[in-house]
User: Fold Protein DETOXIFICATION from Eruca vesicaria subsp. sativa.
Amino acid sequence: MDMSTETAEISTLRQPLVDQTNSERKPPRDNGSLESVLTDSSLPSRRRLYLGACIEMKLLFRLALPAIFVYLLNSGMNISTRIFAGHLGSQELAAASIGNSCFNLVYGLMLGMGSAVETLCGQAYGAHRYEMLGIYLQRATIVLALVGLPMTVLYTFSYPILILLGEPETVSHMASLYIGGLIPQIFAFAINFTAQKFLQAQSVVTPSAYISGAALLLQILLTWTIINVMGLGLMGIAYVLTISWGFIVMSQTLYIITSPTFRHTWTGLSWRSLHGLWSFFKLSAGSAVMICLEMWYSQILVLLTGLLDDHALSLDSLSICMSISAISFMVSVGFNAAVSVRTSNELGAEHPKSAMFSSWMATFVSFVISLVEALALMASRDYVGYIFISDSKVAEAVSELCPFLAITILLNGIQPVLSGVAVGCGWQTFVAYVNIGCYYVVGIPVGCVLGFVFNMQAKGIWTGMIGGTLMQTLILLYVTYRTDWDTEVKKARTRLDIWEDKKDPLLN
Assistant:
């Protein structure tokens, strides 16, 4: 087959996907272009694999690249606050760092609970039950807002909590004031993450990237003005960060309400969103536990390192490695978002082969990218530390930790993608149990034994935690390999059918 024939064949298969972007028409039913390729027995298996890969790669990167951009920009907002606070003074920097770290609790909680709407909206969209997406969006926002209420109490009393944790009194006072200025963000997160998943389920990701980019620019300009012109200091930084998140929420909300693209998925406020809140909360709780356990795992590594004998050198080198790992992790998180959308959409559309193919394709692509990153890191291991610091001892310590960092990057190229598959299928509660066992029953205890008992220091702690991540990755690989995708399609159909009977969705 010549190139022109091949291009025409793929273009014909993709035509419905192009039509779907037309906002003036009702979203057409998917004709299963990827599914039709994978099930076409008239094509040789290698040909089916090639054509399927061409279709899936375009869909995957169209979702993953904007998602990566969004997560990088959102992280940049927190980084910029620390930069501005650092120019105010060391105590202000410490207060902002503590405040942002404490606020990661509610960030992870809301992000995790928001992934529940990702499962349901993705499967509903794949099944062309478009009116359900708006109901799920409202239901998720209500649940997350209710969960945010006790969080406001927790952060209102952050000062005595920080004192009990042993933080200096002056820094605790400044950090508590800073956290108080961030409290409205709790409810901004509740709206933002559910709206973001609502958009992702429909493969609409680029507008969120534009909104996040505009919010970052707004934050930088306002923070500079408030500090240098108005002289509001640390509290001004907190207020601007809250305003920036408010800008993101308002922009996304207006986009969803006013854009004709969503006139079939957003039909206005409905009393039906108040039904089945407890069932929705249970799935959301499983999602929150899954995400929070993963986010806290690396934080515990830093805390344990602070207890070592030469903790200053260990913390400096480890913080540099964690910064590199965090940047690499953003790529995997982008593929996590993309594969959860692709898997849930295909399951909802009753395309088991496409769901399986999407899962493994995303895992393979993310692994290849992480392999390139790990090899580049090892090639520059003697120099990478100097990007962050001029101290030769710290740079040498970073070089010694680079093999551990390279292994972590490789695992992070697989594990988050498999977690995305779990979100697409609705396995959040199962993965939460796996995380508890692998991270907190195996990884951390083994790391403590190696680090403190066998005196391997930071290398020992990191080795144990790598072991926990490796165990979790192998379990998820095995579960994904053994998955009966036809059964997953039936489960997705059951969830949606039960909703149409006006009962609580079967979420487990």
Summary: DSSP finds 18 helices and no strands in the chain. Residues 45-88 form the longest helix (44 residues). The chain has two domains: 60-275, 276-496. Residues 276-496 form one domain.
